[in-house]
Specification:
Blueprint (H helix, E strand, L loop, with lengths): L4 E3 L5 H9 L4 E6 L4 H13 L9 E6 L4 H11 L7 E6 L2 E7 L5 H7 L2
Parallel strand pairs: 1-3, 2-3
Antiparallel strand pairs: 2-4, 4-5
């Protein structure tokens, strides 16, 4: 099974993500398409996804170069510092975990999923 990326292209989706996060965990992956570290992190997520046991977790993909204002809105809404690449775990309307660069591992997310 490949990573079920959901494109994050409109700021209105953040309201839906917060609502969804009260039902089940939601991940947001912020990706810079021009950065080799970001490409490596995305590839690692795709390799780890099949064994990650996160079937009830939606994972959104944000292309930072095309949708930069949404990244700034995410930082404000969830009170986190913008980084790229960055993986955020949203639960009960809050960012309960974030990791960036080569520190992005789905095993860490699994440990935090409630």
């Amino acid at each position: 099974m490949s990573t079920p990326w959901q494109p994050l292209t409109e700021s209105e989706q953040l309201t839906d993500i917060v609502r969804e996060s009260h039902e089940h965990p939601v991940l947001i992956f912020k990706h810079s398409t021009s950065c080799s570290i970001s490409a490596a992190a995305k590839s690692k997520l795709e390799r780890q996804w099949p064994e990650a046991n996160l079937a009830d977790t939606k994972i959104y993909y944000l292309d930072l170069l095309r949708f930069r204002p949404i990244s700034a809105e995410i930082a404000t809404k969830f009170g986190i510092r913008h980084e790229s690449p960055q993986l955020l775990l949203i639960q009960d309307g809050e960012c309960s975990f974030d990791a960036s660069h080569m520190g992005i591992r789905l095993s860490d997310v699994q440990a935090k999923v409630q």
